[in-house]
Design a protein that fits this description.
This protein is of the alpha+beta class. Among the domains are: about 195-265, no CATH class; about 445-475 and about 505-670, no CATH class; about 675-765, no CATH class. The chain is globular, with a radius of gyration of 27 Å.
Length: about 775
Amino acid sequence: MGGLIEKLDGRLEALQARLKGLTPARSAAVGVILAGLLIIPWLGSTGLTSPWEAQYAEVAREMTTTGDYIYPTYRNVGFFSKPVLTMWLTAPGLSLTGGWMSDGVHSEWMPFAVRLPTALLLLLLAWSCHWAVTRIWDRQTALLSTVVLVTSPFVLLAGRQAVTDMPFLALHGSALCLLAGYLFGSPPEDELHGHLDSKAALALAGIGGIASELIVGLVAPGLSSGIRLLVAVVVFVALLFSFARASRVEQEPGWAKRLGLFKGPDDDPMPLWFPMLLAAFFLLQVVWLAITPEPEHYMGFRRVGAQLPVRLTTIVLLIVAGAGLCLHISKQRRADLAIYGFYALVGLATLAKGFGGPLIPGAVALVYIITAWDWDILKRVRLISGPLLALVMGGPWFLVMLNYTGRDEEGKTFFSRFIIHDHVNRVGGGIHGDESKHKLGFGFAYSLRYLSYGLFPWSMGVPLALVDAGLHREAEERRRRAILFLVAWFGTTFLLFTLMATKFHHYALPVVPPLAILVGIWLTRVARGESRWSMGLALLAIIFGISVGSDLARFPWEWMDLTTYHYINYKPNSYFPGNATGQCDLGYSYCSILGFIPVTLALDWRLIVGTLVGVIVALILLASLGVVIRGLQDEARGRRWVVGSWILGALITGTFVSHVYFPMLSQHWTHANVVETYFKQRSPGEDLVAYQMNWHGETFYARNLEHQVNDGKRLKAIVERPGTSWVLTERSRFDGMTKTLGSKYKSKIHIVDRSNVKWFLVRIDD
């Protein structure tokens, strides 16, 4: 046994030495690749979940079908609940897989293609976190912080769904990371100049690939989406190859150097790829504004008695302001790339989820300035051109929509729905979700509870990291200020969502990045012996671990609840049935050996999740207490075992949540299988009825062809028509539907697909 431990310790020491020797670029690549391995494999293994993911996808499908990327619609009327960025990210996947078409079964690749942009934004957040921490501290701290971030269940669950949460988190989180790196960082001493800049290569190749796809689509609109995708991929790869080849020549080509393909010192000119990327985004909006089939709308100015065409005015503003900003930014220094990147991401975050985009970064910066009394940073943050860039990035679409006269399903305009209902009322009045108004202390405990679930097992170390941040004094002033910035980031976001009257479990998600970085800093100090590990710290961590772990063991659906809706009425039996049957059942997993020998495995999910969290807590417990008991806390190998146990536990948890737990549970939050059965078995002219449902997934998968019926009389009228009828209904409402139709249809009602624990697909014979 002792020999095995020594062998493992030797492997850990060698791995630690290899990671320490990585260049900044390779260290960042390790963090991004780890995030990719946790999020991308089997990303499309299950259908889009309801109601949020499927609803946004249906909005994007209608956009792609009509060619109108400006005015979002759902069921052919206005959709104003969320801004448009998530739908813009979703639309390419639908276009390339044929998901926009008006009838038929979706491609098996559709869920993967739809979710991929969201997953890539998680990789952007991982890279931004690593970049900022490397510039402020070092590569080891950066890599540990990135590992903490990308192994958190909260982040992984949000990254596996094409909903607004990950775009919002990734964009405003990356923005704040860029701001921190710009304000408090300095280039690493061993940073290599004159080498290919991967960011520049990917950005320029991406612009080329997207441009080629758009040009091919305009020149030959009849070409299939697969061929257009192939052209875009070929152009993308060819450009990457040419850029890599240019970087290997002895003399840097002038064009490549000016574009910013090579890394250079901070006093170099701004690389042209960045203003080119901004210009591409502006031009794309100009094209969409010009080609939208919606009639022009006008905005009036009462004092002068004039009216201006909204879209034409917006196009002019985009061209003039966008061109002016791109020209101005191109004349700045390379060192300013981070601060302009911050403002650009703030603008995109506004398009992702509304006014929280500028509110959170602005509030964090203000709280930091006041608490640190660091007003000098206002001289460095480009207070004119920067906010103007954020406004031009995120404002034009809102300008168009605020002057739109269309209405949504409830008859509300964009202003009354988005501004009043989804912002003002959500903050102060409480709508949907778990309303906590008039309940003293409920918001604080609520956020802590779901943060602890979403950060497990790192939630065991968060209290220790916060205490360490307060007690440990950094040697350098810039690092002390960076710690204060992270604490302001954590405290401000936590307070904002705690004070909101409306509560959803996922509202605590924006608090994760600063906590992940603080935990990464603390772990690095433990590894280096700068923060002494002790019996008291170990016991405190274990107390938190047992508290959180016991909750997850008793209520294993809590992870799934972090990113779902209507969770109050659908647990525990809907997640963990004991006697349901079907190909996608959760209580029993049906598989086969060699593809034809059926095997039934009974799964007790409380036992599975309980065992997992128990093993993780025990792993950290044994390593932490064992090191102290044996007196190894001051030795390098003892510290390696402590840090290694945390990382191993997080990797196991993240892999389980991302690749086992979520895919199996999300099968029962999608209509993919049941609606696919309908398409395969229906005959021409046989429509689908969604009876007493509004889960949105039925609308997306039926391509907005289903009949939404809530009234029993209307259902009977449809069923009495000549021909077979198909009905999709919740299991709990099946008996009521049968009674509504009466004894006449008792022998004609057949449950065709019972593979889902929430919904039945029913065929009613003629």
